[in-house]
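Researcher: Re-running this chain for the archive, since the previous output was lost when a drive failed. Same request as before.
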Amino acid sequence: MPEHQPFMTPVAIFFIQSLLVVSLPYAAWRFGGLRRVMPLVVIQIVLGVLVGPSVLGHLAPDVWQLMFSTASLNGLSGTAWLAVVLFAFLTGLHLQPQEIRQLGGSFAVVTLASVLVPAVVGMGLGWGLIVWYPEALGEDLSKWHFIIAIGLLCSVTALPVLGSILRESGLIAHRLGRYALGVAAISDALLWISLALLLVNLPRPHVSFISAGWMPVLGLVYMGIMFFAVQPLLARFIKNGDGFQESGLVLVCTTIFASALVAELVGLHSTLGGFIAGVIIPRAAARVIIERLEPLTVVVLLPFFFTLVGMSITVDASSSNLLEISLLAIGLSMLGKIGGTAMAARWSGESWKCSLALGVLLQTKGMMEVVVLSVLKEAGVISPMIFSAMLFMALITTAATTPLLRWIGGKDAPWDPKTTAY
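Model: Regenerated structure tokens:
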């Protein structure tokens, strides 16, 4: 007699998770009146928090253990990382490198200002936290590592989340959107290099000297190979979109996955690898590739990543100073990022509206902040209380992007596709 099979098989659990991840956040965002208030990604991350250990795990531990424990999430993990790498690729594919080259010195000034100004403001916040809240330090008790870490956290721009917001707002194919993507791409590269160098000299290093010390060199070698070797080869095999067949799609996917793998191995993160693959693909085939990959990636795959990020969050609300630190981080992070970017953009000749809009877009934190926070927490640089405060800051700043963008633009925003092109 065959053994009785349990009702909730791993396959059944996976498809229940899939129903929740793909359908529930979109329904709340589309039909719950949230579409004009915040990006869909925020709803997806919040759903992850609600079904994670901090909420569902506390209210209904048996249900959480069955549906969303670590063992039951194995099926979502690979899908989530595939989604974010493909989306980073599509984000890079939307970018127009020739436009960035035409911007010249102004682009460099805005990029540096968008990274350095919030980093300096964040380092000031880090110093203040040490003075006012000594318990904020991580277990390694390295003041300078902590100060620099807070600076990095305040200067983060989440490239995939930014791309999602640009798509929802109709700015993905607009000059302002591509300008923001270009700045975010450079700042993300600087972020990963800075993070690796920060971890080199920890009192109890969690990254070996070889992997961290050589990471900038290996990263430059990787970038050189991608732009000066792989890009010309792709240009030879991918002539235009008219003859783009299955073999072309396999070649593109091979490029994406190989780039993500190498970027991950050298310490630049697989997301940046996907983005670089998108940048080097010949633009003659961009339209066809976007038509084939973007709907599936954005609508079906990407929600898995954002929700899984929320599921991995365990909020530590034990400290009475949590709210105060969170508000300080939110205010100073937004001030540094929006103010630094807007002042540099205005100095470079942009209008005040477009300068402020660029600053608002680049203060988007989202997923990248969560990844960096997790690394710093594991390395002992920040405490659980700072992890919680900065996580709260990431969600609030990301949720504020769309309302602020609408408020700055008004009814006739100069970047609105329905009005005169910016």
